[in-house]
Amino acid sequence: MYMQAHTHRDTETPQVPPRIFYINLDKSTDRRAHMEMALLGFPGHVERVPAVSASEVNRPPFFNYMRVNGLDSHLRSKTKAVQAKTASCWLSHVLLWERLQSELEPQDTAFIMEDDVQFPENWTQALPETMRDAPDGWDALKVCGWGYYRQADVVDDNWAVPRWPFYENGRMLYAGSCGYIVSGSGLPRLLKRVLGQEIKDIDVAMMLPEEGTVATTGLAIYEQRPGRRLLWTGGFGSTIREWGEQYSDYDPFTTDTDKSGCSMNMGRVCRDESTDETLTGEGTARISIHSWNQCKLLCEEDPGCAAFEFKTSESRCEFHTSPTTKAVLIRKLPSDDADLDFTCCVKDCLSQHRLL
Predict the structure, then answer these.
(1) Which of 73-77, 96-100, 307-311 has the lowest mean pLDDT?
(2) Which residues form the Apple domain (predicted)?
(3) Averaged over 25-38, what is the pLDDT?
(4) pTM for this structure?
(5) Which of 209, 196, 124 is nearest to 162 (CA)?
(6) How far apart are CA 92 and CA 90, in angstroms?
(7) Backbone phi, then psi, for 187, in 5-degree steps?
(8) How far apart are CA 157 and CA 146, in angstroms?
(9) Percentage of the chain surpassing pLDDT 90?
């Protein structure tokens, strides 16, 4: 049974956001080039928004937010570098919201992105359908991210309400702030929600409380379910954490982990197709997609998937159903990851694998 959206779905032609704002650090010129190239075909306004850097968070005018809101208790337990980078990301989003609050009319919309967004082909053609399918009366729509959803949060086949906790039953839920659409009328409610908390990871701050609903909190925020997201993330490394560093609000991993975030005995397996024939012939190509992370999620949701391979050269997700697959998936990490064509992961490891 699905949760009820707080108003009826609008049947009129949806308004596609005419403006895109992407957040980008001055030093991240490779990411800027990626975004400029990817957004060349967007018919509306595209604007780069300089991100707040970690070195600026304790300077005016940014320090006022640090003083008033303070840092989340779990974030305070992290390194100074993670604290500053998390706060700088939080500030970059919040300051843009405050600016747009004065620029957007209530009926206006804007598309906000981070600079590691991955764009599937024809995403601009899919955008109107995303808007048409959105629950009526929305304030914010998360259309890019990673992680899973909670069945109790489901609104319909496409959308769920992102609620705390962020980590549950060995899985991360509703992670990422790489792409979302805001309405002019909803920005005050989004700001009230986030500014009413201590500074933490911005995606966690945007979520509703564990017992909260759209009706009780007044913030109508929805997130596309895995496999239905308009955009994906994972094209670049994290600008906040190094490998092995956890999200600020929990520390879910209790076993030794390698660079992939998987436990050492059930680790990530990379192989060069030309030298490792172990799994050849055991897979069945199911779907052609553009995201390794989406392939991972689809395997996790399919009870018949024992393991998966994502072939980057073909953007092909291949599931493995053989019960012996797990036994032969040993750790094999060649020195030059750039030459790898396949990335494999055991299904039992998927709930631990994270893209920070």
Answers:
(1) 307-311
(2) 270-345
(3) 94
(4) 0.71
(5) 209
(6) 6
(7) -60, -45
(8) 17
(9) 51
Q: All domains of the chain, ordered by start, with CATH?
A: 19-233 (3.90.550), 257-346 (3.50.4.10)
Query: Scanning the structure block, which residue is given the tokens 């975030």?
Result: 261
Task: Answer whether 246's CB lies under 8 Å from 37's CB.
Answer: no
Quick one: angle between helices 80-103 and 187-195, nearest 10? Answer: 150
